[in-house]
Amino acid sequence: MSTSADYDLKERVRAAVDILDVIGQGTEVRPQGRNFVVRCPFHNDRRPSLTINPERQSWKCWVCDIGGDVFSYVMQRDGVDFPTALRTLAEQAGIAMEEFRRGKKTKPGDPDDRATLFDAIAAVADAYYKHLEHGKGDQVDLARQYLDQRGISDESRRRFRIGFAPDQWSFAIDHLQQKNFSGAVAEAAGVAIARGSGNGHYDRFRGRLIFPIHDLQDRPISMGGRIIPAIAQRGENSEAAKYINGPETLLFRKSQQLYGLQLARDAIRHGGEVLVMEGYTDVVAARQAGIEPVVAVLGTALGEAHVRILKRFAHRVVLVLDGDDAGQRRADQVLELFVGAGVDLRVLTLPDGADPADFIHQNGADAFNELVKQSPDAFDHKLAKLSEGVDWRKDTHAASTAMESVLGIMAKSSGDDIRHEQLIVRLSDASGIAVDRIQRRLDVLRSERSQNSRKPFATKRPSRPTPPPRPAATGAADLDVNAMLNSMADDDDESPSPYAPAVIAGRSAATSNARLTPISGIDRELFEALIECPELAGMAVEAIDPSWLSSNTAQMLLSAYQDLDLAGRDLDVDSLLLMVDNEQLKNQIVTLQHRVGLRSGQSSEDADRRYTAIITRYREREFESEKTRQIERLASATLDDDQELALLKELLEAERFRQGIETPTEQEN
Questions:
Q1: 0.70 surpassed by pTM
Q2: φ and ψ at 309, to 5 degrees?
Q3: Which residues pair with 31 in a beta bridge?
Q4: Which of 144, 493, 514, 545 is deepest in the core (most CB within 10 A)?
Q5: Per-residue pLDDT tens over the stretch 154-187
Q6: Strand, helix or coil at 66?
Q7: Distance of alpha carbon 560 from alpha carbon 363, whole angstroms
Q8: Which GO terms describe its cellular component (predicted)?
Q9: For residues 331 and 589, what is the distance between their CA atoms, to the nearest angstrom?
Q10: Which CATH number fits the domain 476-613, given the four candidates 3.30.70, 1.10.860, 2.60.40, 1.20.144?
Q11: pLDDT tens-digit profile of 220-265?
Q12: How far apart are CA 586 and CA 378, in angstroms?
């Protein structure tokens, strides 16, 4: 449930932004009656099928069957969770979230003010870009020559806003000071380093090509620098690293960012596949050749957080590695991700030690795309490497080592049983060892790992907190609807949710697109009546037992109403959409609201009467269910004569009460 501060913040942000402006960024919005339509960015839309209702501040694509409010649109567009979408829109509206969350107020110009850091990074990135575009001198000439040698065109340079940091100690510092940014802000933004003496700062990037790193809203949040050999050889940077990235800051977490994702997002979503490369120039070269769904990691190996982000947009991830020894080592490291992540993770190792930029430049996009099509999944890649020069039936030691290597990785991941069974069969086919023997060995390794994890004084922290006790089935008033929904939608947490129903709690991580069951039947009639007449919702919260509702989705929507009622909020659709963070439930709320709008003025029966009839039907259904249970008890032959008589009397009295017949008095008897 949203806290009062959270709810107030969401309400303020929603009031400060217009959903038309948010959805209409970079695309044409057309009026259609009282609504507006736009081509849906979430499927290949030939004609506008996404409807925007500016009065309700809601949206719906009927082809994709998704919709909601402005928050759910940003979540869907950017592939982010609700807190990130809230922060994105708050920053767009100029609202400081810290005032609501921690009571901490940052001032413009402070090094811990996010807006200040965004402005500082943007100013430095723009200065580097303009220096490469318009600057003069032999250093700039060498930078341009290097781009020419790598085959990077002026168009690509401008698209990626590539810049040049001159081999000077204070180019960025001086530029920021001219714009009234302090040295502390330059350091907090990651473009400067404090001197050891404590006296001032110096530039982090010197004599390098600059590749700005953007977030999904296309804002610079950090930058990376690529050494220019001709410049490095002149001075003291000759032994410097080929690439350096900005440090982690308030805006930048390298384990959660991918270079070029803001440009590649739509191509990735439409094709369902993403190519992950190792360098900025690889991404630039690929897009220049017409290969669009490409991103790069930022000075770190592909990790779980990266896979979580990419799974929001694609079902297949192809890791493109240089053909050198380092590339092979990185290929080995991703097998664990493949086993546990529930994603089709493939490994493409380029021939002859080439990197992607060089290979594409020399062989063309068609040759590269053909290699992508042929790329094996991470498991086959690992088996192929382990099998090189090994006769599984004769080289006992080598075969045993290879088997232990693969099973050791599988034992670390809970994965899903079907996926592991498939991998075991493939391992059996490759090695000639029986499936049951491999399974027994895997079980032993898992058991050993489990026992080790339970030893006292363990140094490894648990990967996630212990889940709270499972709430009772009828205790919807105590449920946190957002926690319930998020635990169901979190495809990266392989432990059963304490809130999820049995079917969903038992699902595997591979079922990444698990959807809520649509609200239907009498449940749908109920919530449509409450949406049409919010005044009825207060009575419904008191009258309806959650166990009456047919689906978990309906129970969660009732729980949202209960949360609003407890908080003293209005029980209308606007409040519901603010209370619920999960985009799937938002979609169902908007769909119900749309059905109510279509039926407006057509029903001869008012909402009050429909609500009364619905409650009566619920009670009739519960009565019939209870009567059936009691009759089954009578038929079970487990009751004595007195118990049977008492139960028959209960049934008779209940039936009389249901039909409005008075119970006979003793005198009448």
A1: no
A2: -65, -45
A3: 36
A4: 144
A5: 999 999 999 999 999 999 999 999 999 999 999 9
A6: strand
A7: 57
A8: cytoplasm; DNA-directed RNA polymerase complex; primosome complex
A9: 44
A10: 1.10.860
A11: 999 999 999 888 887 656 567 888 999 999 899 888 899 999 999 8
A12: 37
